[in-house]
Write a structure and sequence with these properties.
288 residues, eight-stranded mixed β-sheet, single chain, alpha/beta, Rossmann fold, globular
Length: 288
């Protein structure tokens, strides 16, 4: 995987991030979702690297990046902390400005990056994601049924980690929908190592605990203050996933946050970087 890329570990604030980077040209950061690592981009990053400097980190808490102890507010796993990681990483790599592409949980980090670091983020791509507050304010019985894991992960009295770590490969469908055939053998091996690590499972769950608390409050404060995304934004969603089915047009939800947002669906299941990499690369090149 990632032929011609450098695999590195870079200290950024209170965490060390595992990161791959390669290519040349304007900088683009690719941020993975749950429960993946940066290797989910293995088919996308080398293609983009023909035209861009591509940077693919493991988010804090995920993969082989740092997993700091969390306070009662889960501040260390807030999207503001993760966006600060991205800014610090790009400074360490010598990039003052960069585009950010985020999928799933990485989409929340990409969104936070554009909100918190508008002088650094030149373009924003969000894939299969909405602001947390928009999800929660639309929380119907269907959302609670299909996205129940958000609320399960958020529990601390009966921690989700105990259930997941009892049989992580079954929990994460490691030999069915997330099999080596679906993910690719090397990407699957990295995914498997991550979900087998109790510290990583804890870090991933902390991400969701922060989401329902400090991240929601931050977004509510942004909205009350009228803050919006300044840079061009592309919103993509997987047509074989349930975002559009739950909410209708995702662009209508994003417009109050970014009036200039554009976007469309991609014929794919949720993990589009693995399932429809060619279509994704073409779309990203057209926007970036």
């Amino acid at each position: 995987m990632f032929e011609g890329f450098t695999l590195d570990r870079i200290q950024v604030g209170d965490v060390t991030l595992r990161v791959r980077y390669g290519g040349s040209g304007p900088a683009v950061v690719l941020l993975h979702g749950h429960p993946r690592t940066h290797t989910t981009w293995y088919q996308v990053a080398p293609e983009l690297a023909r035209d861009y400097t591509v940077v693919c980190p493991d988010l804090r808490g995920y993969g082989q990046s740092g997993k700091p102890a969390a306070d009662d507010e889960h501040t260390q796993y807030s999207k503001a902390a993760m966006a600060a990681d991205v800014a610090g990483l790009m400074t360490a790599l010598g990039h003052e400005t960069y585009s950010v592409v985020g999928h799933d949980r990485g989409a929340l980090v990409a969104f936070r990056s554009a909100m918190d670091h508008p002088d650094r983020v030149s373009k924003l791509v969000v894939m299969d994601g909405l602001p947390v507050v928009e999800h929660l304010e639309r929380c119907s019985a269907r959302f609670a049924t299909e996205w129940w894991h958000w609320f399960f992960f958020a529990q601390t009295a009966k921690p989700a980690e105990r259930v997941i770590c009892a049989d992580p490969e079954t929990w994460y469908n490691a030999w069915t929908v997330n099999s080596p055939d679906q993910l690719g053998p090397e990407n699957h091996a990295d995914f498997l190592a991550a979900i087998r690590d109790p510290a990583t499972v804890h870090g991933m769950v902390e991400d969701y605990r922060a989401g329902l608390g400090i991240d929601r409050r931050t977004e509510e404060e942004d909205r009350a203050a009228g803050r919006q995304i300044d840079c061009p934004m592309l919103m993509l969603w997987s047509t074989k996933d349930d975002l559009e089915q739950l909410y209708g047009d995702p662009l209508a939800i994003w417009r109050p946050w970014c009036p200039q947002v554009i976007g469309h669906g991609i014929d794919s299941t949720h993990h589009v970087a693995e399932q429809a990499p060619g279509a994704l690369v073409d779309t990203l090149r057209g926007f970036l």
